[in-house]
Structure formats: C-alpha cells, structure tokens
Design goal:
about 375 residues; alpha/beta; Rossmann fold; Beta Polymerase, domain 2; six-stranded parallel β-sheet; 14 helices; 11 strands; about 45% helix; binds magnesium ion; binds zinc ion
C-alpha cells in the first residue's frame, strides 16, 4: 500500500518565516510569532524541514552563505537550500526554478510528491507545482498582494496554473493544516480488516464520460420515486459527474431535501432495500447531512446527501454545478487540481474532498 504521508516541508524565509517585503540580513531577521514553535512541531511530528530561499544579497557581497546557514540551523532547519545568485544570472536554483527542490530530493532521498512548499510568493508556488510538491501560500509578506494579483487576472500561463493547494493566514496555520492532513492520511493507511472494501477503496479519477450525466439523472429520478412517500420531492444530481467534460471519481452524487429527520428510520429502510448503506453522522463526521452510499460489487456507485430545508450547502452545490456547466475554462482548472490532489490523497477520500473546498469557495465567490 502506498503511503502518501508528508515527508518534508520546504519553507521560504522572507515574508513566510518572518521579516517582510525587504531583505533582512541574518542577525537582524526576526521570525513571526510562534513561527519557531511551528517548525518545532513539524520536527516533533517526524517531518524534515528545509529552507528554500533566494538570497541575491550573497552575490552582491552583503552577506555570505554561512551566515544564512547558521541562522536557519538555529531556527531548527535540518538543511538550508539557498540560491546565492542574482536575477538574470541564469542559475537553476533561483525560484521559480526547481533546482533547490531537486537538489534537496537527491541529497536527502526525498519523494517530492510527498513534500510541501510554504511560501508567500507566486514564484514559490510555481517551483512547488513544477517539482510536484504541495504548494501552500501564506498571506503574510507578499502573500496577500500576490493573491490579489491572481484574482485580478494578473498572472498567465505557468503563473496562472500555479494556484496553491491551500491558502493559509500565516505559517502557523499552514503547519496546522499540513499536520492535520498528515494525521488523516496516516489514519487512512491503518487499514482495519473490519471495514468493507468499498469504505477504503482507492480514489481513481476517470476521464469524463457522458454516461454519468444520464445515469445521474436516472438515479435521481429513481430516488425521488422511492422516497416520495417520505415527503422527499427534490433530488438533484450534483458533484463532478454532473458537470459534462470534467474527469471524476466515477461515483454519482445526489442530494435530496427532507422536511425533517423524524422519519429517517423509514428512509434508511427504504434505501437499504436498494443497496444504499447508511453512514451514521458519528462516522460520517458531517453534521449538515445524512449520508448514504450505494454499493454494487464492493464498489461505491452513488452517494446520497440528505439535507434539511434551509441548509446552505444545498444552494452552494447547485450554484457551483451551474457555474461550472457554463465555464469550460474553470472545468479545465478544476480538472488539473483534482488530478493533482488525487495523486497526493490516493488513499484518503476525506482529505481529498477537504482539499478541494478552497477551489469551490473561489468559484462561489466570483
Ligand atoms: Mg518570500
Ligand atoms: Zn541560484
């Protein structure tokens, strides 16, 4: 079984760890509050941590490599990857180039797909993306301005494609997010023999198939008929399979509105007769819904999300689906993000789902 767990984190220095937009020499550089605790918590969790920083002041003779190395070691870094060159020297290490990441991988035996980059600049995100690392942008330093620029459409081509997997307020939040994901991933790799096969099956993204839309519509009609005696009249096909042209886990998502959960037992029984398994909220962990999985031949075929009236997720789901159906450019962007996430979270359906929410939020905020 593969282990997608996090191996190492590459941290940018200026604007991420501390300081700001201007270069601050070693000795004068101050870390943000709790930044050193965050580094310590990564190390305590067994993660390796390396710096990942451009320092053209070295080329200019204002500081030397050793000063940076000493400073970073004192902060708790295991290794310092520092580009000492000027912009325009054409080196392979200066971000957005991937040279430092590739060298670190070689020197330390890292799988870059299991490494994260945390930085405040889009150049950090480009290097991360092109080396196959998880990119996390912080809003500190230049981070907010970079995000604003992206939102204004100020980036194109490889710049536009480098949108981070996660945007954190600061380094501390980025580290909390990473460690949380890592815990979930490790949890998912401890396979419990009592779990049915469909509960732990690996996520596989398939190329878009027009049959999904047809089947989703049919299944929605079927559920509507089955549950109409329980006062369920609205059933919608949602999620990736409801968007023509989008690669997806080939599992149909349906949502249905139920006036109250008073008759839930009857609904569970009616659905059970049609191969639907009820996942109780304490296992599901999503209070806003009651969740069912339809299983055939040990494979998940459909999900059903039952929601109460006035549940805000209902409108969000419909809105997201309808926007995407009109926007091939967003479909393309979403497809790329999904395939990248699926690679990282192969064995962890929940972490995968969680990581997509950032993109969804952006679409809805447009
Ligand atoms: Mg920076
Ligand atoms: Zn360089």
């Amino acid at each position: 079984m593969s282990h997608p767990t996090l191996q190492a984190v590459f941290l940018d220095r200026d604007g991420t760890l501390g300081g700001g937009d201007e270069m601050i020499l070693p000795g004068k550089f101050e870390c943000y509050p709790s930044a050193l605790e965050s580094i310590a918590s990564l190390r305590a969790a067994g993660k390796r941590i390396y710096s990942f920083t451009n320092q053209p002041v070295i080329a200019r003779g204002q500081a030397c490599m050793e000063q940076f190395e000493q400073e970073l070691q004192a902060f708790g870094f295991e290794g310092a990857y520092v580009c000492p060159h000027e912009h325009g020297e054409g080196c392979a290490c200066r971000k957005p180039s991937t040279g430092m990441l590739l060298l670190a991988a070689e020197e330390n035996g890292l799988d870059l797909h299991r490494c994260a980059v945390v930085g405040d600049r889009w150049t950090d995100m480009i290097a991360a993306k092109e080396a196959g690392c998880l990119g996390i942008l912080v809003r500190t330093g230049a981070g907010q301005a970079e995000l604003d620029r992206y939102e204004r459409g100020g980036f194109s081509e490889r710049w536009q494609e480098a949108y981070p997997l996660y945007v954190a307020e600061d380094l501390n939040e980025a580290v909390r997010w990473l460690l949380e994901k890592d815990r979930e991933e490790r949890g998912a790799t401890l396979t419990d023999p009592d779990w049915p096969a469909w509960a732990t099956e690996v996520i596989e993204i398939k190329p878009a198939d027009p049959i999904w839309l047809e089947k989703g519509t049919q299944e929605a009609e079927h559920v509507k008929k089955l549950l109409s005696v329980h006062r369920i009249s609205e059933v919608e096909h949602i999620g990736s399979t409801s968007i023509p042209g989008l690669p997806a886990k080939p599992i149909l998502d349906l949502m249905a509105r139920i006036p109250s959960y008073d008759e839930l037992d009857d609904v569970i029984a009616a659905l059970a007769a049609q191969d639907w398994h009820y996942i109780p909220p304490e296992l599901d962990g999503v209070p806003s819904r009651r969740f069912f999985v339809k299983v055939k031949n040990d494979k998940r075929q459909c999900h059903l999300h039952l929601m109460l009236p006035n549940e805000e997720k209902w409108d969000k789901q419909l809105c997201f689906r309808n926007i995407l159906r009109e926007r091939p450019d967003l479909i393309q962007e979403y497809a790329e993000l999904k395939s990248k996430l699926a690679e990282h979270y192969k064995d962890d359906r929940e972490a995968y789902t969680h990581a997509k929410t950032d993109f969804v939020q952006r679409v809805l905020n447009r």
